[in-house]
TrEMBL record:
Positions of the UniProt region annotated as Disordered: 1-24
Protein family according to the UniProt entry: Belongs to the RutC family.
PANTHER family documented for this protein: 2-IMINOBUTANOATE/2-IMINOPROPANOATE DEAMINASE RIDA, PROTEIN HMF1-RELATED
Name of the protein this chain belongs to: RidA family protein
Amino acid sequence: MPPASATCSPVGQLPLDETGTPRTDLDLEGQAELVFTNLDRVLAAAGAPRDALAQVRVYVTDVELWPRVDAVYRAWLGDHRPARCVVPVPALHWDSLLETEAVAHVPTAEVENAVSPASP
């Protein structure tokens, strides 16, 4: 029987630094790298590696930005390919260019400790 697991859903991952300060001064690639770094931090807090990701949803303020975001996403994620959805939106908080939410499978005991590092 497989070990018990649950899901961790890090939502609202924006380009915020470790103090919660929006970094919309960064270019698109810089914002994307910061968003994925924040997602890494949440996954680590939950005890989940990147390959535990089952789904990633990326909101972008202009669908024309997707190829550039996708390049950063693929470099960050490596060979793992969870389900992915790209959602064009008119605007995001703090004028961010992208935001992510995800679902990862993690051991049940670890889920209780997962907290977004940039939560206000």
